[in-house]
Design a protein that fits this description.
The protein has about 375 residues and is of the alpha/beta class. The chain has helices at about 15-30, 40-45, 50-60, 70-75, 95-100, 110-120, 145-155, 180-195, 210-215, 350-355, 360-365, and strands at about 10-15, 35-40, 65, 85, 105, 125-135, 140-145, 160-165, 205, 220-225, 250-255, 255-260, 265, 270-275, 280-285, 300-305, 305-310, 320, 335-340, 345, 370-375. The chain has two domains: about 15-230, Alanine racemase (TIM Barrel, Alpha-Beta Barrel); about 250-345, Lyase, Ornithine Decarboxylase, Chain A, domain 1 (Beta Barrel). The chain is about 30% helix and about 25% strand. Strands 2, 3, 4, 5, 6, 7, 8, 9 and 10 form a nine-stranded parallel β-sheet that branches. The longest helix has 18 residues, at about 180-195. The termini are close together. The relative contact order is 0.14. Bound molecules: pyridoxal-5'-phosphate.
Length: about 375
């Protein structure tokens, strides 16, 4: 492991062995004939995209999914040569960057399709793209039900080459709901209609982590896992189907411990007042680090293998925890904000519960000022 940062001791440890393990579980689940496009957008879900992508590349990832052209360029600059699909934000003025960095755009609407085709012809260039179909998310993509109106547009393309077809599932984490099946069927109908019209894009993909785990019929020729690569479950019941290992843990150290008499108020707004003589530890992590303010007076951190409740409001750079019931806590003690310490653990899902959100938001919100330290 690289050494922790000098000075402010708030950092994340990124366990690359766990990442490799999770990637292997994906491979096992989909079998040898299905490609894996690892979703590493948003700084690899907050895990640090450069090291994550390098590790997944060595483990055999067939490609990478990012949200923006800028994220794609960062991957290229870190030495990734595999195909990179820009999943969401494509703007015609970025065509030069797409071409220069060999990034594949996902195209979701006819105006962008026509605009890129026109610009490419002007430059006498061609470009592979993936077509995004809306099968029931109501977000980006050409509507599956309107295929007869947009299909003729594909036949006019010369410069743009249809390399992939994909859609996004909206409710795959709920295994009981039939909606995923409905989306899969709509997607299959689009695929068959395209094939009948003479199109045979090699990359056909629909499955996110949840569908990859729970719905084999969604695998097609490629899958797009994000969350599960990082060792997190789309739904907790899925832990029965696949064993994943959390990749990220988040640590800090006690900055100061003080004894305060009963009746002392803690933090902004005086939302916590001690009911007894208390030991209060101040931690160098706050909402500007991505430690969510909704954890105030709700969450806990681990100190000396025990849970220390968060007291008072989390402030921008600091958080206070009550360590009255934990013997011997002193300045410099290790504190776990997310992860394991001895037999105790705080998961991203637990933090998400306290912060009224999902694990995705917990890990992607850990801010840039928190160093990520890789462990092999
Ligand atoms: C288009 C697309 N595909 C795949 C994924 C990966 O989803 P998950 O992290 O649930 O596996 C995402 C994530 O939001 C996405 O936007």
């Amino acid at each position: 492991m690289k050494s922790p940062p000098k000075g402010r001791p708030t950092y994340c440890v990124i366990d690359l062995a766990a990442l490799r393990w999770n990637f292997e579980q994906v491979k096992k689940r989909v079998g040898p004939g299905v490609k894996i496009l690892s979703v590493v957008k948003a700084n690899a879900y907050g895990h640090g995209v450069r090291e994550v992508a390098k590790t997944l590349s060595r483990a055999g990832s067939d490609g990478f999914g990012v949200a923006t052209v800028e994220e794609g360029i960062e991957l290229r600059e870190s030495g990734i040569r595999a195909p990179i699909l820009v999943l969401t934000a494509i703007y015609a003025e970025q065509l030069g960057q797409l071409l220069q960095h060999k990034l594949t755009p996902a195209i979701s609407d006819l105006d962008t399709l026509r605009g890129l085709e026109r610009l490419l012809r002007k430059r006498s260039r061609s470009l592979q793209f993936h077509l995004k179909i809306d099968t029931g998310m109501g977000r980006l993509g050409l509507l599956h039900s309107e295929i007869e109106s947009w299909l003729p547009e594909l036949s006019k393309l010369k410069a743009l080459k249809l390399e992939g077809l994909f859609s996004q599932l909206s409710h795959a984490e709920d295994e009981k709901a039939g909606y995923t099946r409905t989306q899969i069927e709509a997607f299959r109908r689009v695929l068959e209609r395209l094939q009948k019209a003479g199109f045979n894009p090699p990359s056909i993909h629909l499955a996110n982590s949840a569908a990859l785990i729970a719905e084999g019929s969604s695998h097609f020729t490629m899958v797009r896992p994000g969350l599960m690569l990082y060792g997190l479950y789309p739904a907790l019941e899925m832990a029965r189907q696949v064993e994943l290992k959390p990749v990220l843990s988040w640590k800090t150290r006690v900055m100061q411990v003080k004894r305060l008499p009963a009746g002392s108020s803690i933090g902004y707004g005086r939302t916590f007042v001690t009911q007894r003589d208390s030991s209060i530890a101040t931690l160098p992590a706050g909402y500007a680090d991505g430690y969510h303010r909704l954890l105030s007076n709700r969450g806990a951190a681990l100190v000396r293998g025990k849970r220390a409740p968060i007291v008072g409001r989390i402030s921008m750079d600091l958080t206070m925890v009550d360590v009255t019931d934990i013997a011997g806590v002193s300045q410099g003690d290790e504190v776990i904000l997310l992860g394991r310490q001895g037999d105790a653990a705080i998961s991203a899902d637990e933090l998400a519960g306290w912060a009224e959100t999902i694990s995705y938001e917990i890990v992607t919100s850990i801010s840039a000022r928190v160093p990520r330290i890789q462990k092999n």
